[in-house]
Amino acid sequence: MSHASPGGIADLRPLEQEKEQKAWYWYDWANSAFVTTVSTVMFAPYIIAVAKDAAVDNRISLVGLSVAPGALPSYLVTFATILSALLLPPLGALMDRTANKKKWLGIFAWAGAASGSLLWFCRDGNWQIGAVAIIFANLFLAASMVVNDSILPLISDEENRDRVSSRGWAWGYLGGGLLLAANLALFTMLPFGLTEGEATRISMLSACVWWAGFTFIPFLRLKEHPPANVEHVEGNVVARSFGQLFATLRDMKNYPMALTFLLAYLFFNDGIQTVIASSSTYGSEELGFGQSVLIATILLVQFVAFGGALLFGRLARSYGAKHTILGGLAIWMLIVTAALFLPAESVVPFLLLGVAIGIVLGGTQALARSYFSLLIPRGKEAEYFSFYHAMDRGTSWFGTLVFGLTYQFTDSYRPAVFALIVFFVLGGAILMRVDTERGIREAGNDVPATI
């Protein structure tokens, strides 16, 4: 009985963990469909078109402000982003006090999918319902991601964390890419006499149904994990959550490596998000590509990112997550440098740039998640991941501001994209200051064989 514990009973924990990991991958598969089909591709152009139908002198009224329809998606996403950055930390404290994280994962996911489904009724100039739908869908999505990421350390030991996180990201890109391909086919062919607007609404609804449906797999198959190291705080559940949050904020100075990594992540993640957000603008306005080339590139990035996430997981096993992330940031620097010289109306170089983005996109984000999980204390997973996502969301306007200002001063998108190199340089420089082994030991976690 070679795999027996001292008591003579076989240790089934690795087998149980593997079953939970397979269930957990499905949540990345579920929510990525909404992120790609709705948030990345279809929502912005659709709500702009609906708002234009209701506009008077190319203006609509947004909480008393006169706004151009073209600016509406940016305002809505910015508002949802700031709101979630404020709400996520107390939510993280609450989640660390519950054993039944999978229940809350389901609640937030289904609330998000239900909110997103309201986009079906966004038509005939009624942009307001679309605004409400996207704000609440984004809020609930962010909440579900805090819970989902906090489950990662509970279902994988330190040795396997990079592999598990990378597989989750890979599944996400695959699921999101498959549904997006189906939706773009519907949008392109317009069968049964559908209009473009109807095809868009069907596509956005399908992403919400996909999100809600596949969430049942982790909801049914994940296990409960009792809270660990929870501070005793008096009062009702809300008071206890804020009490725990303040205790954690005071305690964070004891984990300087986790804080240093959060600062590094703030910079390099903002660079990544801005490259992705601005790539279609760069492709259409600077390089002169039509919608079909841009759509094909988005799909290419999705499917290459599936392999990229798995590749980075394997590289981390050999070289450690920190070194692999640094290698990824070096490739991001090459990508934004290449964008400076990319020839206009030349499809092949643009597609090759898309392949390079796909390779590093999933990998750097997946390893950032698993690397951070090694630097945080047990029992505080949701709280620390709430700060991680608050960094992701609350500061994600730095990159777009730099991009916008550079374009304004130079009147070209080439230097605007290249200017984002500063985020990868700063992020990499700060990440190099993280002492991985010290950070893991300070957090009370086991040091993996390769760091």
Automatic annotation (TrEMBL):
Molecular function terms, GO-annotated: transmembrane transporter activity
CC terms in the record's Gene Ontology section: plasma membrane
Domain Major facilitator superfamily (MFS) profile: 257-451
Membrane topology: Multi-pass membrane protein
Gene3D superfamilies named among the record's database cross-references: MFS general substrate transporter like domains
InterPro entries, A to Z: Atg22-like, ATG22/LtaA_families, MFS_dom, MFS_trans_sf
Keywords: Membrane, Transmembrane, Transmembrane helix, Transport
Keyword Membrane attached: yes
Top-level lineage group: Bacteria
Protein name: MFS transporter
Organism listed in the record: Nocardioides currus
